[in-house]
Write a structure and sequence with these properties.
By secondary structure, the protein is mostly helical. The protein has six helices and no strands. The chain is globular.
Length: 132
Amino acid sequence: MSIILADHDELTLRTAAYGAVSLLAATGSSPHKAATDGTIALTSATGLVGHVLAEKSKSVNLTGKSVAGLADEVLPALTAAVNLLAKQAPTEADNFRSTVLLAIEAAQIHQGAPNPTMTEMSRKITAALDAA
């Protein structure tokens, strides 16, 4: 059975995933490397999640002007994305969660010593994923 998501549902997934990487990049000492490595992890996903995240979309428009503003958009989107997939495609909910966690791990790889700010943001992202 093929699962088809509405355009706004796909936008929620992209906003959540790419927003999580953006949050980590904003808290790291090397934002460009964090964003690049996190994005590579997202575009390497498989399954329905992989197809949605691989689509080039100009529709993801994160408007937060600060880390707090970005978090206000992204953290609820992460919870909404997992809830959406849990209802429509339960195995894809696990795939999405794993993909985002891999992306935040990848985003931290070139940051040198553990950065407490990134560690705390990772915890908040994980909590938002788990809140679903």
